[in-house]
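lol ok so funny story. i was supposed to be doing the assay writeup but got distracted and ended up predicting the structure for this chain instead. priorities right. anyway since i did it might as well share w the group, maybe its usefull for someone
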Amino acid sequence: MSLDHVQVMKGQDPMPNTCPPASNGESKASWEDSKDIHENMASTKKPKSPKPENAVTIAVSSRVMFRTEKEEKVFEEQGIEEYLRYQMEHENEPFAPGPAFPFVKALETVNNRLRELYPESEELFDIVLVTYNHAHVGVRLINTINHHNLFIERFVMTGGSSPIGYLKAWHTNLYLSANAEKVQEALSEGIAAATMFMSEKQIEVSETQLKVAFDGDAVLFSDESERIFKAHGLDKFFEHERENENTLLDHGPLKGFLELLGKLQKKFYAKGHRLDCPIRTYLVTARSAASSGIRALKTLRAWGLEIDEALFLAGAPKGPMLEKIRPHIYFDDQMFHVEGATEMGAIAAHVPYGVAQKYPHKKSTNTAK
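and the output, tada:
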């Protein structure tokens, strides 16, 4: 099974900015009128975007949000000028949904439920579309967003430069991209991030409930225990976990994102919607329950975090379980598990963090994770 690791367009924008600067003589009234018109249109058509400091900001690359393989081929074979020309010639043709599309649609479903219960609250998911493309391609992206009836108001179009600085300015809580290098760069800056892939098969997911599944070590937790396993083997790993059963694991790169999901869940619980909460979380780990699972559960409890379902697989393949869960996204630090999930049609993302990145996977009967 092979995954199509979508490459993001690289290189600086060769096209100069031809737009003239705004005149200093433009009247204050015209600016205010324009602002009023925009606000009136927004109020009648779409809800207002929350302030970034209040929202759960999810930055999504255009190349995992939509399918752009044909356009990428034009860029690779004919260069940037033909690529830009092609995009403008086809700007009224919407892109097809990519692997992150169901996840974003589920975020919007949660937002709709939150607005019903808390009309004035800005504690919502806020989607930022991030693209390396030149701004000329923005017309096609906006047309695509409108075609699919998505509520995405914030764009970052970098013209080939790195988006990481913009992600920090947006207070980004999660970044999903096709570019593994930029994902690693985001992680090094303290931004939760994961690499997504195109797969041939994709199972249907819920349209009414957001399902997010996490691996444990090097995702929610640090890679401390994984290091013991890699260096000393499974027996030493189990011994280490038993000896440290009451010692909390340190946090991993996606702990903060789980915290934010839990915070939103509690808003539904407060209104009597625990049983029909539109957010559901899962821990899917190759740890075994009796010998190493208790430390993971005690750590989550000490952090004040609730996981709706915990699956301790004791080294069994994760793919079949994820096929049953049907998550909108599953995060794992090992490509072996990501590939196993996508083979079953589950939507999975790779978190390139921790000691596992230094060791290629070797098939075995068990793993620490």
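The chain has 14 helices and twelve strands. Residues 104 and 209 are 12 Å apart (CA to CA).
back to the writeup now i swear
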